[in-house]
Specification:
With 293 residues, the protein is an all-alpha fold. The protein is built from 16 helices and no strands. The longest helix is centred in the first third of the chain and has 35 residues, at 2-36. The radius of gyration is 24 Å and the shape is flat. Mean pLDDT is 80; it is low at 289-293.
Length: 293
Amino acid sequence: MRAERSTIVFNIMGYIVISVLTLLCLLPFWLIISGSLSAEDDIIRDGFRLVPQHFSFDAYKAVFSNPMQIFKAYEVTIGLTLAGTALGLFFTSMAGYVLSRKDFKYRDKLAFFIYFTTLFSGGLIPWYIMIVNYLNWKDSYMALLVPSLLSAWNIILMKNFMKSIPDSIVESAKIDGAGEFTIYRRLILPLSTPGLATIGLFLGLAYWNDWFSANIFITTESKYPLQFLLYKILASAAVLKTNIAGNLGADFKAPAETLKMAVAIVVTGPIIFLYPFVQRYFVKGLTIGAVKG
């Protein structure tokens, strides 16, 4: 009886602590939403509030002053995110599967070569020269897609996850006459769903948040991804270039602080809805390597 009572008290305290932590995590995002809907003068005068003193949609009018430009940027970003995540998962899972196989002759040498790239890099200038002069990907979507497909960290994470799959599964499949690609496609991939979800989330966030590559390689405005377009809108010199002032009227003064909040909502809103679908796989994918060694 005493044990049951202590368990109930413990559960209640746990729920209270989790609820408080959840509210603390949601508070910054709520402030962003409130700030994006506040009048610019209120924020300058009183700072951010949990509830806007005067509601204003000027920031969203500024962001969507050219809706087709925003929708085109969304299209580019979503296309790059989906293609990059799918291709990245394919190549990363294949590399992880090969490196996890103990009968692969060059496994240790190749693993060391991949790990070595995490210690040293060629630098920005050689990377730019290779992309522009040798691969001729200047102002091309390939410059945004290909460089982020593979990551040494993702390959190592996938390799460690696939090592936790019992070797007896592969051996029994070989006895039944299955080939390497059949084993990989029909056995390893279905068993690696948590790892794939984890790597997929990493890849998706990387492609969704990438603006620096577009800043370096993309010169055509219609090819701008969402992050870089909104970065240009926020930049003081880009207000006239994106026709915000001209579209909203000569007497319109583009907001500054509220515009930052509206841009944050436009950028983070869609990707937030993806996380609940992969959260349970994400946690399992990160912890299984630590549990099984």
